[in-house]
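Posted in: Protein Modeling Q&A

I'm a second-year student putting together a small comparison for a lab meeting, and my supervisor asked me to include a predicted structure for Ubiquinone biosynthesis O-methyltransferase. I've never done this before, so apologies if this is the wrong subforum. The sequence is pasted below exactly as I got it from our records. If anyone can share the structure token output, I'd also love a short note on what stands out.
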Amino acid sequence: MRKGEMNATAANVDPSEIAKFEASASRWWDKSSEFRPLHEINPLRLEFISRHVDLSGARILDVGCGGGILSESMALAGATVTGIDLGKSALKVARLHALETGVEIEYLQQAAEDLATERSGAYDVITCMEMLEHVPDPASIVEACARLVRPGGRIIFSTISRSPKAYLQAIIGAEYVLGLLPRGTHDYNHFIRPSELCAWSRRQDLRVISLEGMTYNPLSRQYRLTGDISVNYLACMERPDEGGRQDG
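Accepted answer (user: helix_wrangler)
Welcome! Here is the predicted structure, written out as tokens:
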């Protein structure tokens, strides 16, 4: 197997989820497509990340990078970025777009768990955005991220809480009423409560630094960061350094 190829037998992956995103991969950078919400929330994601880490010169791993929207924005902010995903077509789109924009990013078709055995502690920052709710074992991804980040480094997650409000807004509202996402994009049973994500993180000796919500106003059609973490939320975790000191 070539370096950078997917180890399909060991991957923590739902084939139906990969197929779903692969089918629409060519539209990843089309801001009028089903990926429009990702383009619209990306400035907020970057704002949250920048608030907790210094992107300039940072070695960053973007887990579940898809077509590279976040990866490119972090590279343009001065970071050295590696993006990993299990979708071959999405990575092809990411590589082509990086060539068009002249941004240097390393893209690998590889599972986080596999990369963690090769590059333990290699990154200053790990980002894993809108991905945990699409894998069979999200706790395994959290563990891999904890192994991949250096002591003193930080991990940024974003996902969706499993709550009645999230079911109404993220599935009924976003997929069936407003049409922001294709129907079937999310499975409510795969949503992750903040308490669950924090418990998995603490199990890996990660310190919870910050939790923040992201809301959508259908009247203004705008997203914003908020203290409400009952639907979409972002989390910053930190791996203590060997001396127990926390960065920042």
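A couple of things worth pointing out for your meeting: The longest helix spans residues 36-52. The longest strand covers residues 149-160.
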